[in-house]
Each structure stands twice: as structure tokens, then as C-alpha cells.
């Protein structure tokens, strides 16, 4: 049974993680949730999930809920839980580099780190890899492209890889030549993936794919000149790995973040998921 601390429970990745945990009650247990501030989503999670610990990092929001009689803790509990046996798996489901200290502390305490925070890998990849090697840590990405690469490379030598190909939907403007009249509302309508505002805008500008290329370099120790991008609007093939013998492995599935989340939480085991099979006919 994996004992999970979920950081960023109210965002799209956090909510999808909770769905996966609820799907596998015999394998996964949600011990603690953490959010930045007050929201109806957080209240629903507290009332329906009844986690042992609820952590809110914003002091004003924390005081408001404490005044309502709820047992809400501050961010100091995050480090306490990481250093204890009460959790063995951390899901980082929010963007930004502010989580790096928590991530490194989790690695040093030999927790499984499931990471949806690509900015941390992009900014601190060398440091995190050093900590992983030093402490024999476990870090698995929560990202459809990098989970796909992980599956294609599983127990294979990076030296045998000719190139890694990340797929990209192209965003909402991939078939438009004139972008002079683009609106924010249009940029926030991703054609496939429901995501937060920042990553949706980064996808529209293709900046997100640039970050994912850097992330792949650090996660898998692949040289930058062997990482490429292929526009694939259907988002069925999530990444490909080509080897020196010209064979290619690819990972295919419906575009649904619950699948890479489940992979990261339960690896190396496989269980039925909330995502249906592909129709290949």
C-alpha cells in the first residue's frame, strides 16, 4: 500500500490523481493533501476524502478554515511527513520551482517522487540527478511524453538510442499562419488536453515542448542533439524512441492524464485503469 502526500490537490493534475487513488483503494492511500489557498474544491476534498492531514500554505486561507473548526496545518508539516514513515510517495502536482527543497528532501528520505513539475527539472536537473544517484532515489515523471519515454526505455541502455521523439499536439494554432489576431481566450482552448492556464499558454506558444525537451535530457540522460519533436495533433502516440538498429518503440494510449499518473504511482505493476483501450481497427 502506497501512502501518498499530494501537493497541489486542487489543480487538474491533483484532481486526476485523486481519481486514480480512488480507483485503486487496495494499492493507494491518500494520507495528506496540500493546497495554496481556500477553494470550494479544497473544501469538497476535505469533506469527501477525509485525509489524515490537510495543509494550506497561505496563512490567511489557513486561518479562515481553522476558524471554521477544521484541522488545517501549515507547510512545516510537509517536511515532517517527508522525514517520517507516515508517507512513502509524494505527488507534486503544481507548477513552479518553489517545490525544489521539498523534492530534494523527499529524495534524501528515499520517498518515491512523482513529479508533474517540469520547471524544477529544467532549472535544477543536475542537482536533482546528483541527489538521486547519491541517495539511490526514485523519481518518476507525471507527463504523458516522459512516461512514454520511460516505458520505451525501461531496462534498455541509453547508449543504444539513436534519438528520442517527443510528440506535440501543436496547440490551438498549429494550422494557422497569421497569429496577429489571436486572443487569450483562443490560446486557453487547448484542442486535446484540459490543463491549467500556464501550461495551456505554454502549449499554445510551443514553449512547453521546449521545456519538455530539456526535461527529457535530464530525466533520461539523453544528449540534447538526440531529442526531437514531431507534431501529432491526435495525441495518441505520446513519444517514440528510435534505436541504432533503426527499430522504433512507441507508447500509444488515449490522451488522458490519469494513465501517466497511475503509471508513476504503481510502477512497475500494471492494473486496470480509468482509461479505455484504443480502437485500432
From TrEMBL:
Single GO term (MF): 1-deoxy-D-xylulose-5-phosphate reductoisomerase activity
Protein origin, superkingdom: Bacteria
EC number per UniProt: 1.1.1.267
Limits of the DXP reductoisomerase C-terminal domain: 252-280
Domain 1-deoxy-D-xylulose 5-phosphate reductoisomerase N-terminal stretches: 4-125
Cofactor: Mn(2+); Mg(2+)
1-deoxy-D-xylulose 5-phosphate reductoisomerase C-terminal domain residues: 139-220
Pfam families, per the entry: DXP_redisom_C, DXP_reductoisom, DXPR_C
Record-level GO BP terms: isopentenyl diphosphate biosynthetic process, methylerythritol 4-phosphate pathway involved in terpenoid biosynthetic process
Reactions catalysed: 2-C-methyl-D-erythritol 4-phosphate + NADP(+) = 1-deoxy-D-xylulose 5-phosphate + NADPH + H(+)
Enzyme class: oxidoreductase
Metabolic or biological pathway, per its Swiss-Prot or TrEMBL entry: Isoprenoid biosynthesis; isopentenyl diphosphate biosynthesis via DXP pathway; isopentenyl diphosphate from 1-deoxy-D-xylulose 5-phosphate: step 1/6
Keyword annotations from UniProtKB, A to Z: Isomerase, Isoprene biosynthesis, Manganese, Metal-binding, NADP, Oxidoreductase
Family under the similarity heading: Belongs to the DXR family.
Protein name per its UniProtKB record: 1-deoxy-D-xylulose-5-phosphate reductoisomerase
Originating species: candidate division WOR-3 bacterium
